């Protein structure tokens, strides 16, 4: 997937430890500004995962864990998390190890792969979310990769509902046409060469995807080259993990997604054979906008349409 993320660290990081923050977007000012707090969760083997909470002024009605896409910093979801907090949700964002604020030391020395991101990083964040939720509903909103890692999270049973946004399998031959025409060169030439030369994937310099640890890019390449994606590349054990997910899943995907085709979306959700899945395939015209794409759902300019009219009903 040769995308330019909205710069893995591209959106301005508005979080200030222990502070309140206002947002110029009027759709987010329905309630007092959320209290924003940076903190760190210690995952397995002592790895620090940088996280941010967005708390409403009063007691929250629910807790929402926002699980990021590949190469996208948690700062990209700041306005979205603030909007959730303004609607009485406690929202949590984070960076996977080896990325964003969770990068400790040189990228080429970062030890991580996708299974580690799911099992350890998402698992630790889910524990943190559960500790804050009490008896309240705990919801998982996964953007792209954030909807693919569910099978690797051992404590997933605490989640009430999963909403995936622009999540698909990633198999390159089924990508949307724009991406498919570039994927062969990316996976067979650029990625192996970059890993050989740099010991990591310097995506920000290449303006593709984002900076990623070697282990993440190596495993992701293997997944994207297999027709069954993760379940095929990793074998029967991972296929069984997908089937073991029992949570209700709402899939939100977009007809103008430049990376994920309808087939990609169907393929990854088809792996969740034990989960009830509701598909919502939306065109920009359906919600009165010109473009959504792979990243647009989380942009504040679409708050009045996608967040208010599409997401809120799905959260209930």
Q: Can you summarize this structure?
A:
The chain is 32% helix and 19% strand. The chain has 316 residues and is α/β, with parallel strands linked by helices.
Under CATH, the homologous superfamily reads: Alpha/Beta hydrolase fold, catalytic domain
- The CATH class, by name, is Alpha Beta
How are the strands of the biggest sheet laid out side by side? 1-2-3-5-4-6-7-10-11
Task: Spell the H/E element sequence.
Answer: EEEEHEHEEHEHEHHHEHEH
Major pleated sheet: 9 strands, mixed
Structural description of this entry:
The chain is α/β, with parallel strands linked by helices. It has one domain: Rossmann fold (3-Layer(aba) Sandwich), CATH 3.40.50. The protein contains 9 helices and 11 strands. It has a 9-stranded mixed β-sheet with strand order 1-2-3-5-4-6-7-10-11. Strands 8-9 form a two-stranded antiparallel sheet. Helix 8 links the parallel strand 10 and strand 11. Helix 3 runs antiparallel to helix 5. It is globular. The protein starts with 18 loop residues before the first strand and ends with a helix. 53% of the residues are buried.
Question: What topology emerges from the helices and strands here?
Answer:
Layout: E1 19-20, E2 35-42, E3 48-55, E4 62-67, H1 78-85, E5 89-94, H2 114-133, E6 138-143, E7 161-165, H3 177-198, E8 200-202, H4 203-206, E9 211-213, H5 214-224, H6 229-234, H7 236-244, E10 249-254, H8 262-270, E11 277-282, H9 303-315
Parallel strand pairs: 4-5, 4-6, 6-7, 7-10, 10-11
Antiparallel strand pairs: 1-2, 2-3, 3-5, 8-9
Helix pairs in contact: 3-5
């Amino acid at each position: 997937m040769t995308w330019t993320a909205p710069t893995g660290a591209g959106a301005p990081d508005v979080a200030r430890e222990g502070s309140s923050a206002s947002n110029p977007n009027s759709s987010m000012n329905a309630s007092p500004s959320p209290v924003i707090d940076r903190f760190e969760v210690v995952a397995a083997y002592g790895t620090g995962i940088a996280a941010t909470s967005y708390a409403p002024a009063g007691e929250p009605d629910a807790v929402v864990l926002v699980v990021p896409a590949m190469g996208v910093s948690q700062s990209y979801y700041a306005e979205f998390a603030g909007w959730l907090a303004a609607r009485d949700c406690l929202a949590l964002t984070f960076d996977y190890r080896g990325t964003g604020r969770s990068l400790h030391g040189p990228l080429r020395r970062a030890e991580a792969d996708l299974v580690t991101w799911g099992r350890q990083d998402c698992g630790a964040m889910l524990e943190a979310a559960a500790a804050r939720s009490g008896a309240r509903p705990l919801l998982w909103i996964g953007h792209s990769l954030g909807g693919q890692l569910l099978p690797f999270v051992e404590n997933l049973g605490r989640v009430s509902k999963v909403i995936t946004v622009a999540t698909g399998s990633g198999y390159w031959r089924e990508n949307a046409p724009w991406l498919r025409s570039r994927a062969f060169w990316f996976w067979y030439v650029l990625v192996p060469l970059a890993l050989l030369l740099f010991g990591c994937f310097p995506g920000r310099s290449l303006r593709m995807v984002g900076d990623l640890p070697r282990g993440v890019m190596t495993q992701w390449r293997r997944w994207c080259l297999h027709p069954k994606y993760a379940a095929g590349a990793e074998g029967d054990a991972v296929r069984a993990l997908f089937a073991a997910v029992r949570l209700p899943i709402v899939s939100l995907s977009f007809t103008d997604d430049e990376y994920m085709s309808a087939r990609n979306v169907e393929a990854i959700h088809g792996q969740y054979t034990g989960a009830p899945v509701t598909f919502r395939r939306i065109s920009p015209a359906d919600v009165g906008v010109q473009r959504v794409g792979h990243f647009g759902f989380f942009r504040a300019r679409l708050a009045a349409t996608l967040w208010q009219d599409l997401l809120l009903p799905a959260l209930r």
